[in-house]
Amino acid sequence: VLGHLHCDFFPVPLDIVEELFLNLPPHQVVHVCRLVCHQWKEVCDSESLWRERCRREGYRLREASKAPEDWRLFYFLCKMRRNLLKNPRGENKMKDWQILENGGDRWKVEEVMVPHPNEAVQKHFVTSYQMCRKSQIIDLSVEGYNPSFMDHFQPDIKISDWYAPRWDCGSQYEIRVELLNERKRPVTTFAPETVYFEQWNDQQWNQMIHVFQNYGPGVRYIRFTHGGKDTQFWAGWYGIRVTDSCVEICSAMET
């Protein structure tokens, strides 16, 4: 059908062309339609096309008064946004995690002790009486974020992690997230101070959040590492609990 609408042989009003493009897969618009002729390229590159796609698919700005410089980029960042970590809640036991330290009675997956703010979270990883630490490395190219895109746009990289102590035992929590170059050497690192909980605490869930911005060119991988232990050397699984860890590539303007 699109071939018969070629602008050189069968002119079609551009507003109708835009409506047609709004009903096509976005990658087809960019990789196929945009190459047909100058008029179609103009429509494919137009702010109105991508702003309307955002509206129809529910991608909203955090602040309505601040529009993105590139609506197409904003659209694709929103559409591709997802958690790049695998098995973040322990639903597949320890699958996809590299165990760096497995002290005490080792890592274990349990049902949540107190309800998580996200009702979908029903399991967590729990640490023991010596240090337990686990990690994942995300290959950005494999996930669809190629080197030229990362170097040119440097989109926000948002990380979050949920952690909670047991009420009857002291514990500690650690997290370290590194943006790595092609040799897997750190470009920049987020490594806050260790969080300690005393015995007889409220046992509630806490969230650690950090956003990497303006980190420069060369980022090819992300290494996410976290863990902890109990501080009273009790046999069993009385240490820090972690779950629903997340790494996302996103737009700074997205809600």
TrEMBL record:
SMART domains: FBA, FBOX
Gene Ontology CC annotation, any one: SCF ubiquitin ligase complex
InterPro entries assigned to the protein according to its UniProt record, in alphabetical order: F-box-assoc_dom (IPR007397), F-box-like_dom_sf (IPR036047), F-box_dom (IPR001810), F-box_only (IPR039752), Galactose-bd-like_sf (IPR008979)
Keywords: Ubl conjugation pathway
GO biological process: ERAD pathway; glycoprotein catabolic process; SCF-dependent proteasomal ubiquitin-dependent protein catabolic process
Record bears the keyword Lipid metabolism: no
Residue stretches making up the FBA domain: 74-251
GO molecular function, one term: ubiquitin protein ligase activity
Keyword DNA damage found: no
Limits of the F-box domain: 6-53
UniProt protein name: Uncharacterized protein
